[in-house]
Amino acid sequence: MNWLNTIIKHRLWIGVVLLALAIFMNIELGFWPSFIPYLVALILMVGHFLFGPMRLIQTAMEQGDMEEAKKIVEGIKFPGLLIKPIRSVYYTIKGNLAMVDQDYDSAEKLMKKSLSLGGGSLTQQAEGPNKLQLGMLSMQKGDMKQAEAYIRQAIRAGLPDNENNAAAYLQLCSIMMNKREYRAAKEYFRKAKGFKPTTPQIVDQIKQIEKYITRMPG
After folding, report:
1. 64 vs 52, residue with greater confidence
2. Which range marks the domain in which residue 45 is found?
3. Does the predicted model carry a pTM greater than 0.70?
């Protein structure tokens, strides 16, 4: 809904204009005629600081416009005012954007900050993806033991879609191959394929592993 995105994008300034209008009406006509503009201004301005522009960020990321998403995220000047579940999502998104920039140290700190907030349904929904990202970051650093722990925690916490689940089991498959636990590697590979992912990167990874996994013992 473009009209809703427009309101979210400009709601602080719309709220300021309505507040000025309400003050003028209050002076000229009294409090009750100005009550509605006061109320709408309050809702818009409080919403700007407590909920932030998360819908705009989500829309930008779904469209693959990471530069726009980063611009909107950087426009949040007071993240400490966001309510806790929204703040957790904010740090998750910042972590994801840091990963896109290959700034893995910052990404790890932001993901851990998101997880540390805890509580709330939105935060719980982000727990699985966050831990999966932390697992992948640990793999980037060569810490396979920590990577395995995070990825198993991610699966237990729950992942939102087939793509994330397939990615998690593929990472476990790679870890088991590295540990020469070939039977487990084959089982995790089978589970990854069972989710029928469509993301080109994951599909390509499956094709690469499939070339030699059948020749493994076990």
Report:
1. 52
2. 1-49
3. yes
